[in-house]
Amino acid sequence: IWNKKYNRGVVCMNLHWKSDRTKQLFNWMCNHTQYNTNKVLIPPAIRVQISKDLDMSTGSITNNLKSLKDLNLISGEKGVFTINPQIFWKGDEKARKAFMCEQEIKIKFSI
Q: What is the pTM assigned to this prediction?
């Protein structure tokens, strides 16, 4: 759902997904994003929990994280990821603008 106004501090948009598993993982990440930083922590213990919550193997989680990176929806590694704030933001508008000024974030869309 694309919502240009900040509804409870969340901005998100509808995307064309490579797979339902990738979408499920991205939705999980959005739900667990830190406020005003867009960081998501996924250490090994959390991967095990995601595996149970989404009925997805840890290998599949790794593959779907790579897919999300390839789509420029997330960046990061070693259990610390950042969601692209042009796609999703959990926080206030001022923090989002500041974050985007500090980071050079590139995104490509396929239509």
A: 0.75
